[in-house]
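Kindly review these tokens for lecture notes.

. . .
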Amino acid sequence: MLLLGCSSDPEEEQQGGGGGGQGTETIALGIIPIIDVAPVYLGQEQGFFEDQGIELDLSAGQGGAAIVPGVASGSIDIGFGNNLSLVVAASNELPLQVLCSAVDSTGDPERDPFTIVTADPAITRPADLAGKTVATNTINAIGDTVVKASVRADGGDPNAVTFVELPFPNMAAALAAGDVDAAWLVEPFVTLAEGQGIRVLTTPLNDFTDVQVEVSTYFTSTAYAAENPELVERFTTAMVQSLNYAQENPDAVRAILPTYLDIPEEVAAKVRLPEWNTEVSQETFEMYTELPEAQGLLGGEVDLDTLLAQVN
């Protein structure tokens, strides 16, 4: 896997400083309320952002495809979003730049938190989703794209799958009511759904590629990066510390989940955790530019050099 370094100084990261002598600055950070962003909350708890002179103003979106326009327009300073949405944005010449990794697939089908779930006993493999209705948090984004790729890899017709948009917290009820046949679901909602008799059908990121997929990254606009280079650097330093802390302290991750997600401690103790790496995977971005299911989403050529300029 070709990995690109995040734009932070390793020595500065070890020292935990960089904001000294500067007043506190606020960053509007767009996130999705899922397990993947636990490092943000851990970083606040551990003082990593405070050490860099940063206060985070968090706002929640339904998916990366919804956060991208906010960052591009300047209403959000930095966003958390899936890499496919960033590739699509780049293909439409939206001026965005990746700052650092956010979350990776585990590469292990038995413990990957990025899933397709169903309550229908007749659905036993991805190909069975042809002719069915599948829920995803945002249309024309990572969810429906990887579901279709999984169906294709299993010999089914990906174009025969119908998608409907639902928030992650509403998917289990829709499955139980029979309103949808399956859902693209992530943690903690996978574990919550399993408690209601819903089962994991497959982990699609392991079905169609040998790449250990980097699912999401933190990103900003080229204008914000150009106008605030030191602040962006300090954010990245704090974020890298936070990612490392989360990866090295899974018990701390589980402990903080109920503080920002509406889940009990016993669910937090069971959820599948992703990988929190700090290196950006250019291989993942290249994979999305070539994935057949993504081609209809791309507006034109994808300039990865510009998108990844901060980490090259």
